[in-house]
Recover the amino acids of this structure.
């Protein structure tokens, strides 16, 4: 699990003061208000202010956050027997010594264990200061309550104010700087904004290699716990970076799974996802650990439909010369002995010739189908993947072949070998956002027969989407 | 000259380099697409036109999701209703790269567009779109926007303010402001009104490469660049010529004052080879070659005389003869640049750029008038 939850449902009081309570201290009286003129660092503009009308006569006055029995926004739900650390930003109208306390209750609103009290901090007048306390919930402790209390001798006097903002209860022992979904794109509300727990997503990219030939060696790119929004994934391998097929601006949802059928063989590949929030603001990048596909064959596939893939042998005539030219010209200026080169950028591979041998008629048909049939159209751009032991062409090569030419090798003598000459230029992959899915709903539908059987088999839609063992079951 | 770093100037002036164009699509003051895949770009600038820059390019678009970007309705991307291309030139030499803003152009016409499509899983997808675009600079909108009725300046205190009011464009006030010398009635043509107003400041208005309206002085500045032949130079070819067509030795002003009275003035050359007559009154070799001027902002004889004097200085030189030049591609060259041309015989000539034509070729055609 790489999600972390702040169970405080109204952490920065942006819309109201629900979940915050006066703690006026002995003999004191105070009221809460919800000013909007600038909150604690990272917590937007609003905060909660307690204003004393009657002075307290003993230490222990301040503010309370969370309720032991009230449900809804006012309750802070915790996990029993877990370690937490809480942080609260406070500001007082005069210099005070304040501390944060954590009280834990069970489902009957009875306190469990002793009150944990954090370090007493000398808070200067009118200065936002953060208090923290570390605690464990103990057996049966599932509700939390935080209290800001004073311990110095000056007491809360009539007219004094205490401001509280940015309440965070975090699992573990390390308290990060305060943030919530209104200021941090990596976070999201579980329900109504400013009235539900907020979740911090820490996405992880898992890359799983599949070496089988159904339809060709490939990897699954799985993004776990992505933040809300979209993601675009790029593959860095063989000293260059390419967009992964079908992973352009993908809505993240509860997780993203895609097959990368163009992953190169025998070289280390790293996948990097860029996340963009729902408003189009880039959030940042997350990379996978490198993966290497240990394959020693040559595969040719159709980029728009990875089910069209075939293993071939490239003959010695293939890729004998790798030419990458330039646009431009030499220019002689008037009276000059030497010309100067004025040109453009370097081009990709041009005039590359590959001769692909197929072992049997089925493979030869597949190689023809990659370019389309009498009934189906295809773009004449093919994906050629070669192992590093082969000639120094790009390990993932998109080649535009305007005139694929098939020649017979020994079929007319009873053999099964044919060859196809593929001559063309290296090009961009067509429509990188578009790719035919290997696993379709109809595959799982056909495998299980009924929706209830599917629901029983998988705990989530994501689990169903990731069960690539059913790919192609419906034919 | 456009501004650029010293490194960029050195790269352009000495030795070999690479260049290409980049373009961003803007609509309604928002960048809608960056780094468009453009090809076949032509940009032509001509000082004699009101809308100085025009051009064309081809967009070769492959969409990530195989959608068509062909504009179908007003307001679509690339539709010729306010969509604009910001065009840049990238100069590159090894790790050095500099992007020079070249032009801010309105898409005025999409004369040809085609999609290539195919069937994919039961739907028709677009595997590529080719759009041909015709471009003109932002003044094309001023030109099209004629006055509803004859109207007059809203105020007389500032020429720049009036230009802002007339055009609605952002201004870069490159010349000192001056009052408008009298209230006049604007005729039909808004662009002509703009030119007349700019005349008061001694400037030529143009749409700059950042989309703003600015002016360059009509008066020649000191040279900003030297064009040279030989190994160190960038001059490829120069076609010199001489013509009497646009050279005059007399300027006559004919106009009206505030009270509809006639305002007349003339200036003529009385000495030297262009003299209008010999000192003894006989016919001179050049004889009289008058040219006529009028300007509704000139209302008194004194103003008219000053006007003809300044015009005479301009039209009585060879500056009206145009020389086509081929030079190594240089994105910094601008209309109005005063340059020194050093020819094979080491003769220096000062000239001013009045026309530039660029494409993807390694050289560009520049038209100059000599001073």
């Amino acid at each position: 699990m790489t999600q972390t939850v702040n169970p405080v449902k109204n952490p920065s009081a942006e819309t109201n003061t629900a979940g915050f309570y006066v703690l006026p201290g002995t003999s004191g009286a105070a009221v809460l208000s919800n000013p909007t003129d600038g909150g604690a660092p990272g917590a937007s503009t609003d905060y909660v202010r307690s204003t004393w009308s009657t002075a307290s006569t003993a230490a222990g006055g301040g503010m309370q956050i969370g309720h032991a029995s009230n449900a809804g926004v006012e309750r802070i739900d915790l996990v029993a027997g877990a370690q937490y650390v809480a942080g609260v930003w406070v500001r007082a109208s005069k210099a005070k010594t304040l501390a944060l306390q954590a009280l834990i209750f069970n489902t009957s609103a009875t306190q469990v264990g002793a009150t944990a009290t954090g370090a007493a901090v000398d808070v200067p007048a009118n200065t936002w200061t953060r208090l923290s306390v570390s605690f464990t919930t103990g057996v049966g402790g599932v509700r939390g309550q935080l209290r800001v209390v004073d311990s110095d001798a000056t007491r809360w006097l009539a007219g004094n104010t205490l401001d509280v903002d940015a309440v965070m209860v975090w699992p573990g022992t390390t308290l990060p700087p305060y943030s919530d979904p209104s200021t941090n794109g990596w976070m999201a509300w579980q329900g109504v904004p400013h009235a539900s727990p907020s979740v911090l997503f820490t996405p992880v990219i898992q890359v799983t290699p599949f070496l089988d030939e159904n339809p060709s060696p490939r990897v699954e790119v799985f993004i776990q716990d992505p933040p809300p929004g979209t993601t675009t994934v790029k593959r860095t391998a063989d000293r260059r970076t390419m967009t992964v097929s079908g992973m352009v601006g993908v809505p993240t949802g509860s997780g993203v799974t895609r097959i990368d059928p163009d992953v190169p063989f025998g070289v280390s590949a790293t996948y990097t996802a860029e996340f963009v929030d729902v408003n189009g603001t880039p959030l940042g990048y997350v990379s996978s650990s490198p993966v290497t596909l240990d394959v020693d064959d040559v595969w040719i596939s159709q980029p728009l439909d990875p089910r069209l893939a075939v293993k071939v042998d490239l003959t010695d005539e293939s890729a004998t010369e790798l030419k990458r030219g330039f646009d431009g010209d030499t220019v002689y200026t008037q009276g000059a002995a030497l010309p100067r080169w004025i040109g453009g950028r370097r081009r990709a591979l041009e005039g590359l010739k590959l001769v692909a041998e197929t072992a049997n008629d089925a493979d030869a048909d597949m190689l023809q189908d990659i370019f389309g049939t009498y009934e189906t159209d295809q773009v004449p751009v093919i994906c050629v993947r070669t192992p590093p032991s082969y000639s120094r062409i790009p390990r993932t090569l998109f080649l535009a072949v305007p005139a694929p030419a098939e020649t017979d090798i020994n079929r007319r003598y009873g053999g099964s070998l044919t060859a196809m000459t593929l001559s063309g230029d290296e090009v961009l992959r067509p429509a990188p956002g578009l790719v035919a899915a290997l696993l379709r709903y109809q595959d799982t539908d056909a495998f299980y027969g009924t929706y209830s059987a599917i629901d029983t088999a998988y705990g989530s839609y994501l689990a169903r989407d990731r069960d690539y063992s059913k790919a192609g079951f419906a034919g | 000259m456009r501004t650029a770093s010293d490194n960029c100037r050195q790269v352009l002036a000495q030795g070999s380099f690479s260049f290409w164009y980049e373009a961003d699509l803007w609509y309604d003051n928002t960048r809608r697409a960056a780094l468009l895949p453009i090809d076949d770009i032509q940009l032509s600038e001509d000082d004699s036109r009101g809308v100085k820059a025009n051009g064309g390019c081809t967009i070769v678009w492959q969409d990530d999701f195989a959608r068509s970007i062909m504009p179908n309705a007003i307001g679509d991307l690339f539709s010729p209703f306010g969509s604009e291309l910001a065009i840049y030139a990238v100069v590159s030499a090894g790790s050095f790269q500099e992007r020079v803003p070249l032009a801010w152009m309105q898409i005025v016409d999409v004369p040809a567009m085609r999609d290539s499509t195919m069937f994919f899983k039961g739907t028709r997808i677009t595997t590529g779109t080719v759009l041909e675009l015709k471009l003109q600079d932002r003044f094309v909108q001023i030109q099209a926007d004629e006055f509803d009725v004859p109207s007059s300046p809203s105020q007389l205190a500032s020429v720049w303010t009036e230009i802002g009011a007339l055009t609605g464009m952002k201004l870069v006030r490159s010349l000192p402001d001056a009052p408008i010398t009298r209230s006049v009635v604007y005729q039909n043509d808004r662009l002509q009104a703009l030119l007349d107003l700019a005349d008061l400041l001694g400037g030529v208005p143009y749409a700059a490469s950042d989309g703003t309206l600015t002016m360059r002085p009509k008066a020649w500045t000191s040279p900003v660049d030297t064009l040279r032949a030989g190994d160190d130079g960038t001059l490829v070819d120069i076609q010199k010529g001489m013509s009497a067509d646009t050279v005059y030795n007399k300027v006559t002003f004919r106009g009206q004052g505030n009270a509809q009275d006639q305002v007349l003035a003339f200036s003529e050359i009385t000495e030297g080879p262009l003299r209008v007559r010999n000192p003894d009154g006989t016919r001179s070799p050049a004889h009289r070659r008058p040219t006529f001027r009028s300007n509704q902002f000139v209302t008194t004889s004194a103003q008219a005389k000053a006007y003809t004097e300044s015009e005479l200085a301009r039209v009585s030189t060879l500056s009206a003869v145009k020389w086509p030049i081929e030079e190594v591609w240089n994105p910094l060259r601008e209309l109005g640049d005063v340059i020194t041309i050093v020819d094979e015989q080491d003769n220096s000539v000062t000239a001013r750029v009045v026309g530039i034509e660029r494409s993807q070729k390694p050289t560009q055609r520049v038209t100059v008038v000599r001073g």
